[in-house]
Amino acid sequence: MPSNRRAVIFANGLLGNLESARQVLRPDDILIAADGGARHCRRLGLTPHFIVGDFDSLEPAELLTFQDAGVAVIRHPARKDFTDLELALRHARSLGVAEILILGGLGARWDQTLANLLLPAAKEFASVHIRLLDGAQEVFLLRGGESAQVRGSPGDTVSLIPLGGDAQGVRTSGLEYPLAGDTLVFGATRGVSNVLMGETAAIQLERGLLLCVVIHGTA
User: Fold this and answer.
1) Distance between CA 166 and CA 11 in Å, rounded?
2) Cα 205 to chain center, whole Å?
3) Under 8 Å CB-to-CB from 123, ≥6 apart: which residues?
4) Within a domain: residue 158?
């Protein structure tokens, strides 16, 4: 499959705003369900191209229905070292895509939610741009030497959170509280709750890892 296509992974977390999820989908997206995330596809009237997991969250009859519809099932043992979402990410990467969007990646279980938020920091996914969407919230990762443009509306919240150590050489434009090569210290909250001044902002990072959280529609 060509690398200019995007993979959309439906995880087995909360997906409350179905219409918001529907609006971000493209006709040529490669749809991958991580185990119980297949139910989100069904609620949206979608047939995923792949279902990946150990299938402890789907009933056999549900899985059979998807198989009968032509969905490729990639089964893993229940005793495994990876979550279903990580296995789905690995499969998406194997397809050669450059962008992966995760829907339903957040939820009530903090352990799963934290692990899902940290997955983009894994070295094996360094060549893939991964975003998590949860309604109005958008999360993505910047690595040292990378830059990103944030799009939204004036008043949207933009939080920059260092991971695994200090984020050094952080530069921003278009935010209410600009950074000019500053260091955001790991474990501190200086980068939380900045504000988008216009429709776009730019973020640059020299060294480290920076989790970027954009909350649309808030002041």
Assistant:
1) 30
2) 19
3) none
4) yes
Long-range contacts of 57-60 (CB under 8 A, 24+ apart): 57/12, 57/84
> Exposed e or buried b for every residue in 180-207, given b needs 16+ CB within 10 A?
eebbbeeeeebbeebbbbeeebebbbee
Radius of gyration of the chain (CA): 18
On whether the CB atoms of residues 87 and 34 are closer than 8 A, the answer is: yes
Three-class DSSP category at 93: helix
Digit-coded pLDDT (tens) for 26-59:
999 999 999 999 999 999 999 999 999 999 888 8
CB 96: neighbour CB atoms within 10 A?
A: 13
Please indicate, yes or no, whether residues 157 and 184 belong to a single structural domain of this protein. yes
DSSP of 160-174: EEEEEEEEEEEEEES
In total, the chain counts a number of residues equal to 219
Residue stretches of the chain with pLDDT short of 70: 1-3, 218-219
| CA distances from residue 86 to 20, 52, 126 in whole angstroms, order as listed | 24, 10, 14
Domain presence at residue 179:
yes
Paired strand residues for 194? 158
Q: Domain containing 30: what range?
A: 6-135
**CATH classification at residue 63:** 3.40.50.10240
CB 58 within 8 A of CB 35: yes
The CA-atom distances, in angstroms, between 56 and each of 10, 72, 77, 105 are: 16, 17, 10, 17
